[in-house]
Automatic annotation (TrEMBL):
Domain HTH merR-type as annotated: residue spans: 1-68
Keywords, ordered alphabetically: DNA-binding
Name of the featured protein: MerR family transcriptional regulator
Species in which this protein is naturally found: Dactylosporangium fulvum
Origin superkingdom: Bacteria
Gene3D superfamilies: 1.10.1660.10
PROSITE patterns assigned to the protein according to its UniProt record, in alphabetical order: HTH_MERR_2
InterPro entries associated with the record: DNA-bd_dom_put_sf, MerR-type_HTH_dom, MerR_fam
DNA sequence: CTTCTGACA
DNA sequence: TGTCAGTA
């Protein structure tokens, strides 16, 4: 499929699809007319990439983890340099920190909302 | 009409 | 990341 269809099917701007390729995350083939040619399996791959990106992993790391990614949303255990393992462990810890921060902010909002609700009810 | 590369208020 | 340009 060409970039337009992949974009629609993944909800990813073509601009980003080309960017991911530039970063070595995708390597689509080329049609005789020069257009990029994406295989079906790349639909899932893009999902993987976006998911990892959303969690905060830089494209640099994703490029190394990519060969370990499986179709759905799982990460298959395969090779993995000690360096990559350590990097991922640090990323995991950063995720924990973000989760804790989000939880605090959520609780703060809950408290605020409770106040607003109470005052409105009183009046 | 769709995609391509390169550039930047 | 968005977007505009000038092509093929």
């Amino acid at each position: 499929m060409r970039i337009g269809e992949l974009s629609r099917r993944t909800g990813t701007p073509t601009r980003l699809l080309r960017y991911y390729e530039e970063q070595g995350l995708l390597t689509p083939g080329r049609l005789p007319n020069g257009y990029r040619d994406y295989g079906e399996h790349l639909v899932d791959r893009v999902q993987q990439i976006r998911g990892l990106l959303d969690v905060g992993l830089p494209t640099r790391v994703i490029k190394d983890v990519l060969p370990c990614l499986d179709t759905p949303c799982t990460i298959t255990i395969s090779d993995a340099s000690e360096e990559l393992v350590e990097l991922l462990r640090r990323e995991r810890d950063r995720m924990d920190a973000r989760i804790a921060c989000l939880a605090r902010n959520r609780d703060a909002i809950d408290a605020y909302l409770a106040q607003v609700t109470a005052s409105r009810g009183a009046v």
